[in-house]
Amino acid sequence: MAEALAEVAEKTADGACCLPSVETPGLSAADSSVLAARFKALADPNRLRLLSLVAAGDSGEACVCDLTGPLDLGQPTVSHHLKILVDAGLLAREKRGVWAYYSVVPGALDDLAGALGAFGANA
Amino acid sequence: MAEALAEVAEKTADGACCLPSVETPGLSAADSSVLAARFKALADPNRLRLLSLVAAGDSGEACVCDLTGPLDLGQPTVSHHLKILVDAGLLAREKRGVWAYYSVVPGALDDLAGALGAFGANA
């Protein structure tokens, strides 16, 4: 998945410099679907806060039990949002004992940032 | 708006290195709302393709009349998606004669990419 997004970023960057006009699409329908799904996972304030909390943790991971307090949300709601971030390939989940631990998938956010940067390269 | 997002990126980066644990939120509720609104505008494949077409244009801008063909969408649908991108502060719109011309707001995508990069800095 990370490779797919890096490829999107690359394709867009390459495409941007070679496109003679806007009549040739810069981003394919398939690539845009992959990207849109990830941005959809980020399109919620609580999910962004959860992601920042997980990323900011000293150990690089956070227990779901530590994430409910700062957001003042119930555990089912937090778990629901975390699942969306996992399904989008942004967070990894590991069950240890009774708790699930979450960490940011290495490179996932950088790949998305790269895709955005490639869009903006011509702006 | 660009300044607000740059500030978000900066705050997150600062917060990430200083947070003793995940009990202190890395991203405020207000900042996360601003970011989420922009990601929501990007959470649609057709809007991503429109953005890439506008960004890839030789002149740095694109007429709405040039954007309907590549996506095989009607002009009302294209205009609807473009308005969402304008409202999110990602595209600028200028009316000249009968047509509206769109360009990527300078720095808008880089600011978003920076915010994502700051999230991932600890990952």
UniProtKB/TrEMBL annotation, chains A, B:
Pfam families assigned: HTH_5
GO molecular function: DNA binding; DNA-binding transcription factor activity
Keywords: DNA-binding, Transcription, Transcription regulation
Start and end residues of each HTH arsR-type domain: 27-123
Top-level division of the source organism's lineage: Bacteria
Protein name: ArsR family transcriptional regulator
Taxonomic path: Bacteria, Bacillati, Actinomycetota, Actinomycetes, Micrococcales
